[in-house]
Please model this.
Amino acid sequence: MKKIIIIGAGIAGLSAGIYARLNGFDTEIYEMHHTPGGECTGWKRRDYYFDGCIHWLVGTKPGTPLNAVWREVGALDASVPIILNDTFYTIDYHGQRINLYRDLDRLEGHLTEVSPADKQLITQFCRSIRALKPMSMPTEKPYDMMNALDMAKMAITMAPFAKHFSKYEKLSIGEFAAQFKSPALRRALTAVIPAQYKATSLAVTLASYANGDSGWPTGGSLALARRMEKKYLDLGGKISYKSRVDKILVENATAKGILLDSGQHHLGDFVISAADGYATIFEMLEGKYLSEQLQELYSNRQAYPTFTSVQVSLGIDGDLSQYPSSLDLALESSINSGGIDHKHLGLKHYCFDKTLMPAGKSVLTAVLHADFEWWKNKYDLGEAYLSEKERIAAEVIAVVKKHYPEAQDKIEVVDVATPMTYHRYCNAWRGAWMSFVTTPQSKIRFIPGKLPGLDRFYLSGQWTLPPGGLPTAVLTGRWTIQRICRAVKQRFKTN
Ligand SMILES: Cc1cc2nc3c(=O)[nH]c(=O)nc-3n(C[C@H](O)[C@H](O)[C@H](O)COP(=O)(O)OP(=O)(O)OC[C@H]3O[C@@H](n4cnc5c(N)ncnc54)[C@H](O)[C@@H]3O)c2cc1C
Model:
C-alpha cells in the first residue's frame, strides 16, 4: 500500500484523507491543532456554542453535484437537518428595512417597492439571478485532468449562463451597487459580500440561495468537521493532532516526507499539503518551488487581496428569535476595528438552531472586517491586544443593548476572535479566511496543485481555488486524490 502523508486536518485535508482511504492508500494526517476542521470550526463557552465559519454552505440541496460530494465524505446525511431561512439577510439602513428574500419574485417586488427609480436594474439583476439558479461548479474532476471532450462538455453546460455571468464579471460589487439610485439598496448590495469581490459572486450567491441551496447544517461547522473526521477514522485513516509540520523533506526533487517541530520526521510515497498556501510554499518548502502564477498571487496584493475579520460572540440569557437572523445595521457612530472604521455592523443570531444554546437563550455574533498588520502589532505588544479586544467587545455590546432590549443585563458570555486567532489556530496567512478575493482584476482562478520541479507533492485546499470556501476545500481534497490515482495508474473510486 502506498503511503500518503497529509498536512492539515481542515476540510481539504479530511477530504483528501477520506478519498485516499477509499482508494486503498495508507494515510496519516498531521494537524498542528487538537481539533479537526481548520477554519471550519466553532467553540463552546459555558452553555453556548459559537460558530466561527458557516454562514451559508453551498451543496446542502439534495440532488446537486456538490451535495453528492458532501455526502460522500460524510459531512451531510439524512440525520443532519438543513435549515433554510426565508430571508438571507436583512439590511436596516437608518430605519429603512430591506430583506434579501430567498423567493426571487418576492425579492424583485420588494426591492422595486423600496426604490421604484431602480426598477430597470433590479429587473435585470433578478433575471440574471433566475437564469443562474441551476448553475453548479464542476465537481467531476480537476480542470488539469480534463481532456478536450470534458472541456467541450463543460462549455456546453455553462453556455446558458455565460451571458449572465460575463455581465457582472468586469464589475466589482461596489461598482455594481453604485449604479443604483437608492442609498439603501446600495448598502443592501454591499452588505453580504465585501464590495471588492466581482459582482458575479453576489449574483451566484443569491442564485444558489434562490435555488433552495446554501443552507445551514444543524449543529454548525465543528459538527460537520467532526462527521468527516469520523468517516475518515472509520475508514482506517490515522490523525496525529498537535503535530506541527515545519518542513517538507525533499530529496532529488521528490517529496519524501515531513519534519515536525518536535524534531520527528515521517516518510511517505506522496506528500499532500492541505495547510495554508503561504505557510506551505514559503515556509515548509522555503519558496524553492515557485511558479510565475504563485509569485503573482502572493505579491500582487492589489489584484489578489485577502480578507480577515474580528468576531465578537455573545451568549445571551434571552430569546432573540423574533428578530431577523442576519442583520446589517447602519450605525449612528462608527466602530473602529483595527484601523478600519465601520459605519455598519453585521449581526447574526442563531436561534434557528436550537442545538447551539439552552432553551430561551441566544447566541449573537458580530463580524467586522479588520486589518491583519494592525492586530499583529497589538498582539506583539501583549496587553494592548487584550485591551483592544475588550474595547471592541464593549462597543459592539453597546449597539446590541440598544437594538435588542432582551439583551439588557442578560449578556452572560463574551468572546472575541481576531485575525490573530485565525493565524494562531489555523496558521492562516494574514489571518485570512477564504483565499484570494476574486476581483475584476484577478486573472488567476485555479492553481493546478503541482509545484514546478517537485515530484510526488500536491497542494490542496482553498488556496488552490480562489476565492476559497468550504466547497473548494472539499473538492480540492477529492481532486488531489484523483491526481494521485492517475499518477499511479489506478482508477479513482468513490466508495
Ligand atoms: C469567519 C469565517 C466565515 C466563513 N464563512 C464561510 C461560509 O459561510 N461558507 C463557506 O463555504 N466558507 C466559509 N468560510 C471559509 C472556510 O472556512 C474555508 O474556506 C475552509 O474551511 C478552508 O478549508 P481548508 O481545508 O482549505 O483550509 P484550513 O481550514 O485553513 O485548514 C488547514 C489546516 O491545516 C492546519 N495546518 C496549518 N499549518 C500547519 C502545519 N504547519 N502543520 C500541521 N497542520 C497545519 C491548520 O491547523 C488547519 O487545520 C469562512 C471562514 C471563516 C473563518
Summary: Residues 148-169 form the longest helix (22 residues). The mean pLDDT is 96. The first strand starts at residue 3 and ends at 7. The chain has three domains: 3-40+219-304+437-487, 102-211, 309-429.
